[in-house]
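tool=predict chain=A
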Amino acid sequence: HPTKDTFLASYGQTFVMLAAPPGTGKTVGVVTPNLLSYPDSVVVNDPKFENWRDTAGFRAAAGHKVYRFSPELLETHRWNPLSA
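tool=predict ok
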């Protein structure tokens, strides 16, 4: 069983749904460790950019391409679905 000092990790190609009340350690205990250790591509719904702030530099230094996409902010990456 996980303890307060244990990280949970999902290995392999697996869908994971995580639901818990605010302040229970979802980000620091599950999301961040997986973003730092998962070797393949990830897409993260991160409206406050907290996961981006905490992991994008590490993933970029590890050779991953990292993009921040927010349709309402001009300084983020852009994507036009009509041009595809």
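Residues 15 and 42 are 12 Å apart (CA to CA). The chain has a mean pLDDT of 85.
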